Amino acid sequence: MNNRRRQQLLQSVAPLLTEGEQVEITSVAKVGSVSAKRRVLTTALVGALTAGTVIATVQPRPMYWALTDRRLMFFDASTMSGRPGKLLMSLPRQLMSAAPVKKALLGLGLQTVLTVQGQEQSLKLTFPPAYKAAGRDLVSRIAVAA
């Protein structure tokens, strides 16, 4: 993430911080997962409706994230300007654990799964090739799941 976007993200995070809370790292990740069934159905439907002139793909939602000493916050990255949007999710750091990173995106990116104590569903994070280092850094700062 370039320095300008990082500064914009920090400006979005600043009013949400509690007294003494500090941002440790920031970056971008694709959050969630899309089933193979949904990908095939979307591609087939758009292909049929456009007589094969347009091909559509479905991907997990891109989000800016900021890890503080107390929580992990996710912000909308799908804005018209590209600036960080509204806060979408905030997870308490002490209740999170991360699966070890594994390869994703044809081996170029990284992927991990975050689990929050007391929650049934986990959260899949995919880090594109440009953000692999930030993904490794994030996982190293969160307790690793057994």
Concise summary:
The chain has 146 residues and is of the alpha+beta class. It contains three helices and eight strands. It starts with a helix and ends in a 5-residue tail after the last helix.
Structure description:
The two termini are 31 Å apart. The radius of gyration is 17 Å and the shape is globular. β6 (102-104) and β7 form a beta hairpin. The protein has helices at residues 3-13, 36-49, 132-141; strands spanning 23-31, 61-68, 71-76, 87-92, 96-98, 102-104, 109-116, 123-127. It has three helices and eight strands, in the order αβαβββββββα. Strands 1, 2, 3, 4, 5, 6, 7 and 8 form an eight-stranded antiparallel sheet that branches. The longest helix is centred in the first third of the chain and has 14 residues, at 36-49. The chain is an alpha+beta fold. The mean pLDDT is 85.
Helices and strands in order, then pairings?
Blueprint: H1 3-13, E1 23-31, H2 36-49, E2 61-68, E3 71-76, E4 87-92, E5 96-98, E6 102-104, E7 109-116, E8 123-127, H3 132-141
Antiparallel strand pairs: 1-2, 1-8, 2-3, 3-4, 5-7, 6-7, 7-8
